[in-house]
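Supplementary material to the annual report.
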Amino acid sequence: MKKDLPHLLPALIATLIFAGFLLAGNQYAQLKENRYVRDLAPMLLPQSLNGSALQQAAFRQPDLLPVYGSSEMILEQSPYLAYIFFKTYPTGFTVFEIARKAATSICMAEELAALGPELRGKKVVISFTPSMFNVGEVSLPSYEENYSQLHGDALIFNPYLSFNVKQQAARRMLDYPKTLRKDPILNFAATNLSGSSTIQHALYYMAFPLGQLETLIIRLQDHWKVMNIIWSNPTLKPKVVKKPVTIQWNAAIAQAEAEQALRSNNNPYGIENPKWTGSLKQSMAKAIAPSGSRDTQFIKSLDDSKEWSDLEILLEILKETGAQPLIMSRPIDGPIWQATGVSQKARQVYYDRLSNIVVNTYGMPLIDFENHDGDKYFSIDSASHTSRLGWVYVDQTLDAFFHGNLH
Amino acid sequence: MSIKRSMHFFTEIYTNPWARMILMVLYYLAILAGLVILYGKGNFSTPSFIYQGF
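Predicted assembly:
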């Protein structure tokens, strides 16, 4: 040992031993996550939203279909919700839901970017409602609630994505500066990435290794959190109960429609009875307007929404990572919007624009349930939250997509 | 073991290059472990939710 460097070699050895421990721990965690992710799937754990470890484990399983979405996935409780409907793997798979209220395209873009190469060649469903295109942009409190430091870091310091898409994402993330304040490295990198000068871009690249190191540390924390969940649930089983069944879709549709009609029989819009008597009866009475009288306002709100460019960021990330996505919008609740002055012609603007971006620009499959726009029982409110009947159609679509039967 | 003998024992160890190396490695591992305990937990919690309708 050289006497003039008494600390260097021991520090190096300690670092290598430590790195070895972390690597072994990481591998062990991944094994455990792969083993228990099926049993964890229906729990809709917060860590499966805020982290990436469980999402990555879900993508590794051939019988799990990851579905990213917002409130339409979780708001109403019924046996037709996908994670309940497919719980026993009736046709050989179940869904792994990554859904939270007010999750919009930018939030899903960050989540998916954090998965890296795990997405390549994998099926994934992106679900949303048209209502997110009726507002200018997602509000700060909603974005803040859904923001994950891991996902933000993993997007900005992502080595697999193009500079251009990261720059667009950084510009949007900087619209919510409060979420970046706690993370000076990310804030510095996003600020310089979003700039237009060469010096700023050079500064971004200089921060890149440090950012990747930070992302790695948060990923290890994520694994640690998941391991704690696994260790604290001794009843978790690596093997789940699978009950193969041939689903009679027509019978399921008839059953769900009958149930929904019974639950929504005190109003002409298909709104569920308690909601109608609670507050919607009065607010609808105030909102009633002649057909077409609010078309201009509706189309302007679509035009002004930043959600379209956010959706393009999301689709670009899906394209660059090589995922096989299904883009699934719920239909606009035609009966309600019609009664409040938005005609079918104006509503068509939404479907056309969505189709233009998803199908024509990105060449991705789109299901928008446009043919259910006028269906009284598909949705339960103006925000297109899905009814029991609507859920059967959604489940049927998910089943067809998983088995490659979507035409 | 008296204090004098103990001091002698540790001095002997510390002057041995291999023993010294092992001690130093353990010292740095302890520092790294301490850093993990201090900062390893991570915070995945998010602020309270205000629902925007979608």
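The mean pLDDT of chain A is 94.
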